[in-house]
């Protein structure tokens, strides 16, 4: 019997859009709230963001079977594909997209120094997919959550060593 998605999971895109819309409205009504929440940090980690990520990832992490993680080595091809895509394709794709938007489309309205920072940020975003969302979408797609955890962990371990190379590219 096929498992059906609950209402929240089925309409996740709608809920994200509604949350963004309500966040924009709330930010305009209470402009100081954003600064107050932004200042609530420990070691440059936003506590409100960490709490929300915990609530989002906790149910999925309960489904991880750590004894299954060792089985990843039996089929390493998807891991290799992930590493090639993340480190040999996505940096160039993001470099092109960021160049196109920052240097062509938005060139008249963004100062050069700021455009360089946006380009660096876009390349880093391309290299570092949101760990929480990778796990959430893998779960919703009924993928192998154990394998996704290994892929995300390996990519997250590589990021500090190689990401500066692409930003300086």
Mind explaining what this structure looks like?
The protein is mostly helical and 169 residues long. It has a domain at 65-167. Helices cover 76% and strands 2% of the residues. Strands 1-2 form a two-stranded antiparallel sheet. The radius of gyration is 19 Å and the shape is globular. The N and C termini lie far apart (50 Å). The mean pLDDT is 81.
Gist of the model:
By secondary structure, the chain is mainly alpha-helical. It has 9 helices and 2 strands, in the order αααββαααααα. The chain has a domain at 65-167.
Features:
169 residues; mainly alpha; two-stranded antiparallel ribbon
Order of adjacent strands in the largest pleated sheet = 1-2
Instruction: Please report the total strand number as a whole number.
Output: 2
- Measured distance between first and last alpha carbons: 50 Å
Q: Describe the largest sheet.
A: 2 strands, antiparallel
Order of helices and strands: HHHEEHHHHHH
Unreliable spans:
none
Mean pLDDT: 81
Per-chain topology:
Blueprint: H1 7-10, H2 12-29, H3 31-39, E1 41-42, E2 45-46, H4 47-61, H5 66-69, H6 77-105, H7 112-127, H8 131-140, H9 145-167
Antiparallel strand pairs: 1-2
Helix pairs in contact: 2-3, 4-8, 6-7, 6-9, 7-9, 8-9
